[in-house]
């Protein structure tokens, strides 16, 4: 299983960010009934089956002096809460909307983005008829947009309703998504969760790689009316959203992320590392880099020794902070490399096309990896806070 398939596909999504952030239609597709989510094959990941979320999550820890150790991963055997994950644009199907058959690209992204959350939770990830890479490429070259975003949204909504009816049983749940998946979850919260009993089951909403509009100086009232931004690791029923750029390459005025056109609104930025109290991030980076849309990853250490685990941790190397440049609000990533380090200070993740780095796309490819450990730990801390408020929960 390779992570390169997903990471290459992520560029196509970045090229048309409106698909990631736009609200979806309220009316379901007329001739496209939702898949049967009562069938296990309609799920990419769910408890009780061997699936991509069970993929190897081991990581090589590399310190500044070049020394290495291996962090072995194990999923919890006693999950206290659930995670509901919606994957980003990855489908290589030639049609405008994907089918319901998982290919290597869907398997890869689930392993890359959702598998680590199994450290604490049960992971549910529905297959859905997402807008495909082919549809995005067609739009880029000026062809008519024949994709059906409403179909994608209503598939996820149907999966959510199936999960609530037959799997939740009063448990707390963390919603997790990136890019197209994050945009769909934003719509799901706004249209199908806020103001319903299900809102009480939401531990938090972790949706990097999409723009969540909030009134300037406030944390609720824009895209979401009663789901505020998270401010601490003990906050529940709140949202974490951000888009990542290098601190030394801030977004230009024509940025495709972190920008809201509505007067008085700004893009939300919540730093997961700040919520978990870290001076630096707990990153889990792909050992082979950020895929074909980015520059190749060079050696991790000056001795050129290979890495044999799927992931690499670089303690103390990266830090993040919310920042703004003009009207763009974003998460700024700083690399703290020293000339004497035996560990590389080069972290790939920029989209490169024709030999040029596309600064207006930022680090969309690695929105999650640069703070993955923080996101996972945050989900657990918030779940503990939620359970304290809901002692009658089946997991309480």
UniProtKB/TrEMBL annotation:
It comes from the Bacteria. InterPro entries: AB_hydrolase_fold, DUF3089. Keywords: Signal. Residues 1-22 form the signal peptide. Pfam families: DUF3089. This is DUF3089 domain-containing protein. It comes from Sphingomonas echinoides.
